[in-house]
Design a protein that fits this description.
This protein is mainly alpha-helical and 147 residues long. It has one domain: Four Helix Bundle (Hemerythrin (Met), subunit A) (Up-down Bundle). It contains 5 helices and 2 strands, in the order H-H-H-E-E-H-H. A hairpin with a 5-residue loop joins strand 1 and strand 2. The radius of gyration is 15 Å and the shape is globular. The two termini are 22 Å apart. The relative contact order is 0.18.
Length: 147
């Protein structure tokens, strides 16, 4: 299971890095893109912190300057790879409080999959926003990553 999660998060890292590179080269990044990519970074950070039992430094919809995305993204990935490396039981249940203050518990494997799936969902929204703003997005499908 470690190998699968390492591969999924490597793919996640690759896609996010591509978006960061494309956005940092733009004269003006569409506002919806800033909102959604900041949310991707925040959610990843929040889930990592729930797993390791730390308070989050970011709000769910907190916006970040495009120039800070790379550092936040790198730290998110580093923390997740550390979690994966140090985990012996991916069925371990993680108790956490959601952003509305409700308590839940999910298995670590489901939380890790959720992080990648959530990022993919919002990247799709960003790519649609690119097209609506006349920007040609790079293909980020998994199969392109594997080629």
């Amino acid at each position: 299971m470690k190998a699968l999660f390492n591969q999924l998060f490597d793919y996640n890292f690759y896609c996010n890095k591509k978006l960061i590179e494309q956005c940092t080269s733009m004269d003006a990044v569409p506002e919806k893109c800033i909102k959604l990519f900041s949310h991707i970074l925040n959610a990843h950070h929040i889930w990592n912190n729930r797993i390791v039992g730390k308070p989050s430094e970011y709000g769910v919809w907190q916006k970040h300057a495009v120039e800070s995305w790379g550092d936040i993204h790198y730290e998110n990935q580093r923390t997740t790879f550390e979690i994966i490396t140090n985990t012996d039981d991916f069925n371990n249940r993680i108790d956490y409080e959601n952003s509305k203050g409700r308590m839940f518990a999910n298995e670590l494997k489901d939380i890790l999959f959720h992080i990648v799936n959530h990022s993919t969902h919002h990247r799709g929204q960003i790519l649609m926003d690119y097209r609506q703003n006349g920007i040609e997005p790079e293909p980020l499908d998994y199969i392109f990553y594997k080629r």
